[in-house]
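Pipeline run #58 for the internal structure catalog. This entry was flagged by the ingest filter as a single-chain record with no existing model, so it goes straight to prediction. Upstream metadata was stripped on purpose; only the residue string is passed forward. Reviewer on rotation: M.T. Logging verbosity set to normal.
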Amino acid sequence: MLILRAKDQQQLLTMSEAIDWVGVALGEFSRQRAVTPIRTSIQVTKGNGTALFMPSVVEATDSLGVKFVSVFPDNKLLGKETIYGVMLLADVMTGEPLAMLEASYLTVLRTGAVAGLATKFLSQEKAKVLTIIGTGAQARGVIKAIQAVRPIEHVHLFNRNEHKAHEFAKEIMEQSVSNGPKVQVFTTSDQAIEGAHIVVTATTASTPVFSAQSVGAGVHINAIGSFRPAMQELPTAIMTKAAKIVVEAKEAALEETGDLIIPIEQGVITNDHIHAELGEIVKGDKAGRESDAEITVFKSVGLAAMDVVIAKALYDRALQLGVGQKVSL
């Protein structure tokens, strides 16, 4: 079995390649050619965290596996990471374990890639101003992915902890080439959204992180953070204003995300307000953005089909390049 640490994985796939693989995974899922049960979520009261177990098989890419991820927000008080995880990849012909991957980086890569894919199909083609609310680990993958599909010139940042937003701004500027985007930190989320073409929410918030009034015509929103029924990053009014609401998987989204469940329970939208699964748009079965004036929303809750396809791509590339550590169980 091959062990792939985060630093091993970082040298194996470009973000553009990851976006393409996520498109394959979601296309297979939406055409019912992948088996991906709704993830099992276990609340861990002792550590105020959540343990997630996510299996899938996507036979078109020979991808079979299960990802375990823990999300413990209080870890930051202990000087530890908020998210930990591992991915177990197996052979689709024999069931033999092939690889174990550190899954925190895999999750960042996959989450960034799906946000990039949604941005490619749902944002204005000339979108240049990106706002990111929440500057944790997931934001790092998202900015790389969106830069891969849109000509971003300005990045607006907001975090409840302003110091962390400034740290992320510094990181972006250090990693940028000479003609990289201009980065600005704002003291309120609504100020950060003003003038934005693309908005990303990457938080674990239980209540909306901006006001609906701050969002103008033509904005595309990627909501990639909150993942429980009681969590709601997006204001209800945004869901009623949106011309298109897109998800990875309708069944999972309607069971797992408060951004949909709460407005539905309030009676302001119905299940039918979901325009499409992203895989349907990728395959051309449903329309993406149809005008520059549309407000579009992509709500991500994660989907194991993406994880196993990305993991298999990482594994295959690692074998080609001789990366990783081989162990016997």
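catalog note: The chain has two domains: 2-107+305-326, 124-302.
catalog note: The radius of gyration is 19 Å.
status: ready for reviewer M.T.
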